[in-house]
Specification:
- This protein has seven helices and no strands.
- By secondary structure, the protein is mainly alpha-helical.
- Helix 4 packs across helix 5.
- The longest helix is centred in the first third of the chain and has 14 residues.
Length: 149
Protein backbone atom coordinates (compact mmCIF):
# COMPACT_ATOMS: atom_id res chain seq x y z
CA UNK A 1 0.00 0.00 0.00
CA UNK A 2 1.28 3.47 -0.89
CA UNK A 3 0.08 5.38 2.13
CA UNK A 4 0.85 8.79 0.61
CA UNK A 5 -1.81 8.31 -2.06
CA UNK A 6 -4.15 5.79 -0.40
CA UNK A 7 -7.65 7.21 -0.91
CA UNK A 8 -9.08 5.63 2.26
CA UNK A 9 -6.24 7.07 4.34
CA UNK A 10 -6.59 10.52 2.74
CA UNK A 11 -10.36 10.47 3.28
CA UNK A 12 -9.88 9.54 6.94
CA UNK A 13 -8.01 12.85 7.34
CA UNK A 14 -10.42 14.75 5.07
CA UNK A 15 -7.63 15.52 2.61
CA UNK A 16 -9.11 16.71 -0.68
CA UNK A 17 -5.96 15.98 -2.65
CA UNK A 18 -4.35 13.06 -4.44
CA UNK A 19 -1.52 12.73 -1.91
CA UNK A 20 -0.33 13.89 1.51
CA UNK A 21 2.12 16.25 -0.19
CA UNK A 22 1.93 19.58 1.62
CA UNK A 23 -0.02 18.13 4.54
CA UNK A 24 2.96 16.89 6.55
CA UNK A 25 4.43 19.48 8.88
CA UNK A 26 8.23 19.70 8.62
CA UNK A 27 9.57 18.94 12.08
CA UNK A 28 11.65 16.44 13.99
CA UNK A 29 9.47 13.60 15.19
CA UNK A 30 10.25 10.96 17.80
CA UNK A 31 8.31 7.94 16.63
CA UNK A 32 8.46 4.92 18.91
CA UNK A 33 9.39 1.57 17.46
CA UNK A 34 6.35 -0.40 16.36
CA UNK A 35 4.12 2.58 15.54
CA UNK A 36 2.07 1.91 12.43
CA UNK A 37 3.03 4.04 9.41
CA UNK A 38 -0.51 5.43 9.15
CA UNK A 39 -0.35 6.56 12.79
CA UNK A 40 3.07 8.18 12.29
CA UNK A 41 1.97 10.03 9.14
CA UNK A 42 -1.33 10.90 10.80
CA UNK A 43 0.48 12.61 13.67
CA UNK A 44 2.44 14.69 11.12
CA UNK A 45 -0.81 15.74 9.44
CA UNK A 46 -2.31 16.60 12.83
CA UNK A 47 0.78 18.73 13.63
CA UNK A 48 0.32 20.68 10.37
CA UNK A 49 -3.31 21.36 11.21
CA UNK A 50 -2.37 22.50 14.72
CA UNK A 51 -0.31 25.25 13.06
CA UNK A 52 -3.37 26.65 11.29
CA UNK A 53 -3.99 29.72 13.42
CA UNK A 54 -7.29 31.51 13.85
CA UNK A 55 -5.87 34.19 11.51
CA UNK A 56 -5.20 31.63 8.79
CA UNK A 57 -8.62 30.05 9.18
CA UNK A 58 -10.30 33.48 9.07
CA UNK A 59 -8.33 34.40 5.96
CA UNK A 60 -9.42 31.14 4.34
CA UNK A 61 -13.03 32.16 4.87
CA UNK A 62 -12.41 35.67 3.53
CA UNK A 63 -10.70 34.43 0.38
CA UNK A 64 -12.85 31.31 -0.08
CA UNK A 65 -9.68 29.25 -0.34
CA UNK A 66 -9.67 25.59 0.59
CA UNK A 67 -7.13 24.03 2.92
CA UNK A 68 -5.44 22.48 -0.12
CA UNK A 69 -5.23 25.84 -1.90
CA UNK A 70 -3.76 27.51 1.19
CA UNK A 71 -1.12 24.80 1.47
CA UNK A 72 -0.32 24.99 -2.24
CA UNK A 73 0.11 28.76 -2.10
CA UNK A 74 2.13 28.54 1.12
CA UNK A 75 4.53 26.08 -0.47
CA UNK A 76 5.00 28.39 -3.47
CA UNK A 77 5.64 31.36 -1.17
CA UNK A 78 8.09 29.29 0.87
CA UNK A 79 10.07 28.36 -2.26
CA UNK A 80 10.00 31.94 -3.57
CA UNK A 81 11.14 33.68 -0.38
CA UNK A 82 14.86 34.05 0.16
CA UNK A 83 14.49 35.54 3.66
CA UNK A 84 11.61 35.33 6.13
CA UNK A 85 10.78 39.03 5.86
CA UNK A 86 9.83 38.60 2.16
CA UNK A 87 6.98 36.17 2.78
CA UNK A 88 4.30 38.78 3.57
CA UNK A 89 5.08 40.81 0.45
CA UNK A 90 5.21 37.74 -1.79
CA UNK A 91 1.93 36.54 -0.29
CA UNK A 92 0.28 39.91 -0.93
CA UNK A 93 1.46 39.94 -4.57
CA UNK A 94 0.14 36.43 -5.21
CA UNK A 95 -3.17 37.07 -3.45
CA UNK A 96 -3.66 40.23 -5.52
CA UNK A 97 -2.90 38.35 -8.74
CA UNK A 98 -5.33 35.58 -7.83
CA UNK A 99 -8.02 38.13 -6.92
CA UNK A 100 -7.55 39.87 -10.29
CA UNK A 101 -7.59 36.52 -12.13
CA UNK A 102 -4.06 37.19 -13.39
CA UNK A 103 -1.36 34.63 -14.02
CA UNK A 104 0.44 33.94 -10.75
CA UNK A 105 3.84 33.85 -12.52
CA UNK A 106 5.59 32.08 -9.65
CA UNK A 107 9.06 30.88 -10.60
CA UNK A 108 8.99 27.76 -8.38
CA UNK A 109 5.97 26.42 -10.29
CA UNK A 110 7.80 26.63 -13.62
CA UNK A 111 10.35 24.04 -12.55
CA UNK A 112 8.26 21.91 -10.19
CA UNK A 113 8.95 18.27 -10.96
CA UNK A 114 11.42 19.22 -13.71
CA UNK A 115 14.59 20.26 -11.93
CA UNK A 116 15.97 21.30 -8.58
CA UNK A 117 14.89 24.63 -7.14
CA UNK A 118 18.60 25.36 -6.67
CA UNK A 119 19.14 25.42 -10.42
CA UNK A 120 18.79 28.63 -12.39
CA UNK A 121 15.38 29.14 -13.96
CA UNK A 122 15.61 29.69 -17.71
CA UNK A 123 13.32 31.33 -20.25
CA UNK A 124 12.59 27.84 -21.58
CA UNK A 125 11.41 26.82 -18.10
CA UNK A 126 8.98 29.75 -18.01
CA UNK A 127 7.58 28.81 -21.43
CA UNK A 128 7.21 25.08 -20.71
CA UNK A 129 3.61 23.93 -20.51
CA UNK A 130 3.04 21.77 -17.44
CA UNK A 131 0.13 21.42 -15.01
CA UNK A 132 2.18 23.41 -12.47
CA UNK A 133 3.64 26.30 -14.47
CA UNK A 134 1.76 29.42 -13.39
CA UNK A 135 3.34 31.37 -16.22
CA UNK A 136 1.09 29.27 -18.48
CA UNK A 137 -1.93 28.36 -16.33
CA UNK A 138 -4.22 30.69 -14.39
CA UNK A 139 -4.77 30.23 -10.71
CA UNK A 140 -3.02 27.82 -8.43
CA UNK A 141 -1.56 24.67 -9.90
CA UNK A 142 -3.84 21.71 -9.45
CA UNK A 143 -1.66 18.83 -10.64
CA UNK A 144 -0.98 16.10 -8.08
CA UNK A 145 -2.24 18.12 -5.14
CA UNK A 146 -5.80 18.33 -6.47
CA UNK A 147 -8.14 15.41 -5.99
CA UNK A 148 -9.22 13.96 -9.30
CA UNK A 149 -11.72 11.12 -8.80
Amino acid sequence: MDLATDRDFLDSYEIEARSVEGYIFPDTYKIPKGVLPEDAVGSMIDKMREKFSYEILSRMDETSMTENEVLTLASIIEKEAVVDSERALISAVYHNRLKKNMLLQADPTAIYGIKSSREKITREDLLRITPYNTYKIKGLPRGLSHRQD
